[in-house]
Amino acid sequence: MRIGAVAEGAGVSVRALRYYEEQQLLESERSPSGQRQYADSAIERVKFIQLLYAAGLSSKSIRQLLPCVYTGRASTAMLDHLARERERLQEQITAMTEARDRMDAVIAATAETLTEAAPTCSL
Known about the structure:
Blueprint: H1 3-10, H2 14-22, E1 29-30, E2 36-37, H3 42-54, H4 59-71, H5 76-113
Antiparallel strand pairs: 1-2
């Protein structure tokens, strides 16, 4: 699969794919004309990498994690690292859930006081 197809399928830029290769998160082979060719699994791998970045993991952590994902095997040190990352994610989820719940309360309280004639807050 060519780089443009992977970028489109994963919803990322071609530049991002090149960066992932630089960081050793993604591999490609070169065609005789020098074009990058990716495995069919590249789109799902890139989507997973995007999720991990969005969760706040570094390139280094992702690079260490990916072999474990695909082989199902990890060292004790890696399991400890994964457990710490998971705990950090859980803390973020808890904080985001609290923020969402507070926003819901503001929305509900404000919705009860709405009238057509009253001035409104706007963005």
